[in-house]
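User: Hi! Is it possible to get a structure for several chains at once, not just one? Here's what I have:
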Amino acid sequence: MDRMFFEQLAMPLFDQLYNHACWLTGDRADAEDLVQETYAKALRGFASFTKGTNLRAWMFRILRNAFLNSRTGLAAQKTDFLEDQDVPVDEAVTHAVTPEEILLRSEDQKTLFAALDSLPEMQREIILLCEVDEMSYREIAQVLDVPVGTVMSRLSRARVGLRAALGAKLKEEVK
Amino acid sequence: MACTQDRACLETYLDGELAADQEEALQQHICACPRCAGEIASIVRLRRAMKPGASRFTPSEQFRQKIQAQVSAKPRLRMNWLWPVAAAMVAVMVVAVVWTQQSALRSQTFREVADLHISDLASANPYDVVSSDRHTVKPWFQGRIPFAFNLPEFAGTEFALLGGRMVYLHQQPAAQVVVGAGQHKISVLILQANSATGASLPFSDGIAVRDSFNVETWQKNGLRFFVIGDAEKTAIQSLSRKLQAANN
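Assistant: Yes, the chains can be modeled jointly so their relative placement is included. Here is the combined structure:
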């Protein structure tokens, strides 16, 4: 009974989870391992899932924890987020550079994806959760297991990072 | 007028996560500030370019099926366990029905064999051919039955050939040879082992007691033999061995 319920709720998230796992790991085999582990853990822990709450956030959180425990994930944790103490955002950077306009001209999706790929995993993750998976701050907070305020500061830092990475990629292309 | 809006605030606005009063204030500001309006437009463009990232990686069908099976493993397992049991039950029922039918056919055949033996004993004309010579009895059947069989030499044994006649068993021509053993008469019935008659059914070979008669039956070279009589078991067996030896 519970199992049928789980299948009905969890299988529609399959493509999204797989896509997200690929973005995180950058490797399809690793992503398959992650997704498989996620479904196995979710199935085992489904009894502890509170019905009526957000299953998607719950499953993404399981996926994330599995990722953090993986080899790539452990490395990512070391390099990321020295933060959460508030580093002032550089106003000059945010208003001066407009790589988006150059991007529009070159119309190069690959450049944007390459810039995303070059970001530290944790920055890439939060941008994807927000803009690709279209999660609310509250949902993201559930996935990352941090307060909403932290989501906001991490997100804005990640976006500055993306702009910088995009600018760098475009400069490479011009050369 | 210098714009004091920071970009993060515009992003939060586009995420739809500003508080209602902040949102309203920012909306008014954007209308008045071309710089922020341009900024908003460029952020929107960037985000639109990012949307295809949602389907950048698609899982293989094989992997999808693997996870699907993993998630719905238990019900399938239950079915896997159920099918052999159901199949076994059906098989047992089929075997039981077939066995019952065969058993009924067998006992019916034995009854008819016994009837033929009894009616022969009671008959005023028990034999169509009366002879103690096997070389007379055997040729007599030629042309009357669609098969041939051999009789052993009875001279010098406890048995004496009395005669033979043609009978029908299950609408099939059969040879009945009567052999005397002391005061007892023993009937030997021989017919073709035809599947339509039940005579080819897997009778358990060897001697059995039916309606207080001793009966031995076997099948050899497409012929079914019955040896039936009220003589001693050992006599029935001894006669059967002789017949088996003669028809090898």
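DSSP finds eleven helices and no strands in chain A. The radius of gyration of chain A is 18 Å.

User: Great, thank you!
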